[in-house]
Amino acid sequence: MRRSPAIKICCILDPAEAALAIAAGADALGLVSSMPSGPGVISDDQIARIVAGLPGGIDSFLLSSRSEVDGLVAQQRYTQANTLQLVRHLPVETLRGLRCALPEVRLVQVIHVPEEDAIEHARRAAEVVDALLLDSGSPAQGVLGGTGKAHDWQRSRKIVAAVSLPVYLAGGLRPGNVRAALAQVGPYGLDLCTGVRREGRLDPGLLRDFVSAARQHSPGT
């Protein structure tokens, strides 16, 4: 049985970081392919190698900025990640195309909470995908994640309440604010990159502190 909340450590750079995150208690790893901005970008070859070495029970999230069905399908099949994280706000028709082409792959649509249409897009995407991930990006400015900044958690809470599928919270999470984030938003899972890194690399102490704080939280605390 999965522990609550689910914890996804993103921007994994190599097998050593993957092993460190898993040892600290991560349920899922985020692997960042080519992006217009943000940290942690590695090649599809590197992603495929990391995925191939993961133990059972660990979800592998391929973060892709592609927006066409054929390209997304080809990238997932090459890397063999079991989850496709779509960092652009994709039309429902594209999501349905992906669902038909990749019925065995989990689809996670990123919702950039600062965007005006975030809540409506979340409702539409929730009809097709397996989960949503709330982040602080701004596609209009070419920023698709990895900002290290929190967004309006009240808007995030509204999105969690508006849909009936799992929702991950991302954006500026760190050991010192994770319990407040859980209390205010009530997400299924947490996703973070920069909040557990020092000088670009995963930090064992920050990882330990984050996972401990997150797993000590209980509703109402």
Task: Describe this protein's structure.
The chain has helices spanning 15-24, 44-52, 69-79, 92-101, 118-125, 153-162, 178-185, 204-216, and strands at residues 6-9, 28-32, 59-64, 83-86, 106-112, 131-135, 167-169, 189-192, 197-198, 201-202. The chain is an alpha/beta fold. The chain has a single domain, classed as Aldolase class I (TIM Barrel). The strands form 2 sheets. An 8-stranded parallel beta barrel has the order 1-2-3-4-5-6-7-8, surrounded by 4 helices. Strand 2, helix 2 (44-52) and strand 3 form a beta-alpha-beta unit. Helix 5 (118-125) packs parallel to helix 6. The longest helix is centred in the last third of the chain and has 13 residues, at 204-216. It is globular.
What is this entry, summarized?
The protein is 36% helix and 19% strand.
